[in-house]
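Tutorial handout. Part one gives the primary structure; part two gives the three-dimensional structure as tokens.
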Amino acid sequence: MFQTTIQKIRKELQKKKIECLLVSNLKNIWYITGFSASFAKLFITQNNIILVSDSRYSVQAKKLCRKLEIEYIEIHSDKNFWNNFCTQYAIKTIGIESDNITLADFQVLQKQFRNIDFIETRNIIETLRKKKTEEELDILQECARIGDLSLQKVVESFREGITEKELAWIFEKSARELFGASGLSFDTIVAFGEHSASPHHESSDSVLKKNTPILIDCGVRYKNYCSDLTRCFWFGEKSGEKYENWKSVYKLVKQAQEMGICQMKVGTKIAESERSARSYFESHNINHRQYFGHSFGHGVGIDIHELPHVSGANEKEQYEEGMVVTAEPGLYFSDNSERMNFGIRIEDMVYISKEKGAQYLSHFRYEI
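Part two.
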């Protein structure tokens, strides 16, 4: 995988006439080399690959670089370090990851690298990350499985009086202690009642009461990869006007999700997924522009949100084999009445296969 990735990067650099790429995004450095550190720089030219870090990481860096047959340089306090570095490798222009570097970072680079021309680059490595290898897919499948199992532990803990924060902790504790996750891919969202109408609600001390809708958005990290899963539940008696309203919206969102996923085929425009979901809502007289305010989904992998953008605005890209994306339409009603004051979002991770189409990675099922 390392050699293949490097070849693809070098081909892209050649196309853009960039002699050297400075990789500063630590997740991209890990993706390319497997090196994990709080400080690292990776330089890629047509002839050299140089990893730069400091003395805290020298032991593992040297070992890794020997394995990959690349060069390692330990940075030191010499004020001319970077200029000497560029002279040694005859570097005159450097491509930078513009999405990863702040203005302050760039100003520091200009001081450190004198007489160097910088060229902005965007998503050279992130574009490669869109298509997952079989090894990555195996990790993501396990990641999703851990998420499923951990959410089941949360559902088994539903009871009157428990708080949103307590249920969020049960998810994290189960993922880490029982199922082998290294952590969470984001702060778990547990939203009771009217809180579910806020797509990114922050779990609170609100207590669970009978006849209450629940929304849970959760994900774990496993071997540096992320999972993402959202489910909605009804706690209490499944009867009455409030439940029937919730149930009817749940069915609408579920059907919209399925219609969007049906468009997830190799060669189909990515925009078609969201367009199908919104058309379905519109056919049922739902003002989707008002009640569905986010995109249909996103890529997921090393980052919880990564390329591709699964949005109706993404007219240029098509689904490709190897992509792993989420499908997460939602409807959020907050008119401050008991009748309609909740949100429904249903989210699954999906793998795009040329032979089989969209394949679910998350398998948690809930019957309303």
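Part three, for discussion. The longest strand covers residues 212-218. Residues 134-360 form a domain with the Creatine Amidinohydrolase fold (CATH 3.90.230.10).
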